[in-house]
Design brief:
disordered N terminus; two-stranded antiparallel ribbon; two-stranded antiparallel sheet; globular; mainly alpha; 4 strands; 17 helices
Length: about 425
């Protein structure tokens, strides 16, 4: 992948958020001595301004989900998000891995549903800003992403006909107030689906195309309601944002000071630590995929990340161009112009947001690092990409983008201290 400078990212933000472009370059505040005393140059202040949460524009609309802004869909989606009946053992809900009290994640190295997965749960706050979902980007919308775990054998472990029957039995009125009338499911077996057990797949294959389409339509609408709820969740301001208010704008704010160590960590973050190269913008992520030589969880079964996901998202029946999408084909720009197979994407994973990152240990796509100190030390060392057992004759799985960074042990600790200032509340508008 091509490396981009911090200045290029600033330019990119201007292009992405034209209505707010003027505010990215902060004018000299009336009491500019606060900014000067903090020791930030004009260039640094301009860069810091792009990281403020106030610079976050509304999430882009998803043309494939016509109900994403519906209050009724948000309310239904929240109920579905917390309903453990939508799992094979009646014990797993979306909230099991995305718990509101744990910053909408589970604190585990890899997710556990009805079984144990191979990657950890990603936070769902801010998902509406992503063109691609999951660590590898194998889904192209929030609603399509919401459907994946429901049929996954180690996550919810259910099947789509069971889910359709549950919607009809428990949520019919709410469903029909948002979508069309529920289809007649009397001839649809209770347990049938294209991704279930052999018996469930066999039952699915007995259905005619119209009944399959109707059942899958209810399933797709479940995802659209859940996505509406997830997209309504927002980050609240952190101590870092309050610090920027004071330092860049001369505001008077309580609890807005950073310690000397936290300020130095911020300086390393945007400077020689090069963290801002990928962790930029108000959500502190570029939303892209990078191979940074994170250790493989299982060398015998190497995880190829984004490279293996490209074919999956293109073939997905629930993608933007699929029969359950509300978008016109010309609106599916990301999918239509998706990067073809590119070896630079081998073992590349999505850059996660650093908002509230200190609350979300462990780290990386499979919880390979227990602490933020380990994460920063990894980037300082910049080891080569690991070799999978099945690829010894062909070289490593992918090629890391990282080069070693010169940070002292104290500077590593300072960066970690700064990352702690990024924690803030998660706002659920439905609870106001």
């Amino acid at each position: 992948m091509r490396k981009i400078s911090a200045i290029a990212f600033i330019t990119g933000m201007v292009l992405l958020v034209p209505a707010q472009a003027a505010s990215l370059f902060v004018p000299e505040p009336a009491n500019a001595s606060a900014a000067r005393n903090a020791g930030w140059s004009e260039g640094e202040r301009s860069l810091l301004a792009t990281l403020h949460l106030s610079q976050l524009a509304p999430a882009p609309s998803d043309p494939s989900n016509a109900v994403e802004n519906s209050a009724a869909a948000i309310a239904l989606g929240k109920r579905l998000f917390h309903d453990a009946r939508f799992s094979s053992n009646q014990k797993v809900s979306c909230a099991s891995c995305h718990h509101p009290d744990k910053a909408f994640q589970d604190g585990l190295p890899v997710s556990k549903g009805v079984g144990t997965g191979t990657r950890r749960a990603m936070p769902v706050v801010g998902v509406g800003y992503n063109a691609w979902l999951f660590w590898d980007g194998r889904k192209d919308s929030v609603w399509s992403q919401a459907l994946g775990p429901l049929e996954d054998g180690v996550e919810h472990g259910g099947n789509r006909s069971r889910y359709a029957h549950l919607i009809r039995a428990h949520y019919r009125a709410e469903y029909e107030a948002i979508f069309a009338s529920m289809p007649d499911l009397s001839m649809v077996p209770l347990d049938a689906g294209p991704a279930g057990s052999p018996a469930e797949r066999a039952a699915w294959n007995t259905l005619n195309p119209a009944r399959r389409q109707a059942t899958s339509g209810v399933f797709a609408n479940m995802g659209k309601a859940i996505a509406a709820y997830e997209k309504s969740l927002m980050h609240g301001e952190s101590r870092f944002d309050r610090y920027l208010d004071v330092t860049l704008h001369g505001a008077t704010r309580a609890n807005a000071e950073l310690t000397r160590e936290e300020q130095n960590g911020l300086r390393q973050f945007i400077g020689k630590g090069q963290c801002v190269t990928c962790h930029n913008g108000p959500l502190l992520t570029d939303g892209q995929f990078h191979n940074t030589a994170v250790p493989q969880r299982d060398l015998a079964v190497p995880d190829h990340g984004r490279l293996a996901a490209i074919a999956k998202v293109k073939a997905d029946e629930f993608n933007c161009l699929g029969p359950f999408s509300d978008a016109r084909p010309e609106q599916c720009t990301e999918l239509r112009f998706i990067v073809k197979e590119d070896k630079s994407l081998d073992a590349a994973f999505k850059t996660p947001s650093l908002r509230s990152v200190a609350m979300r240990a462990p780290y990386m796509h499979a919880g390979q690092f227990a602490t933020l100190q380990e994460v920063v030390a990894h980037y300082v060392k910049a080891p080569p990409a690991q070799v999978g057992h099945t690829e010894l004759a062909h070289g490593p799985a992918g090629h890391t983008e990282r080069q070693p960074i010169r940070l002292t042990a104290q500077e590593i600790d300072d960066v970690v201290a700064f990352l702690g200032t990024l924690s803030g509340p998660i706002i659920d508008p439905s609870e106001r």
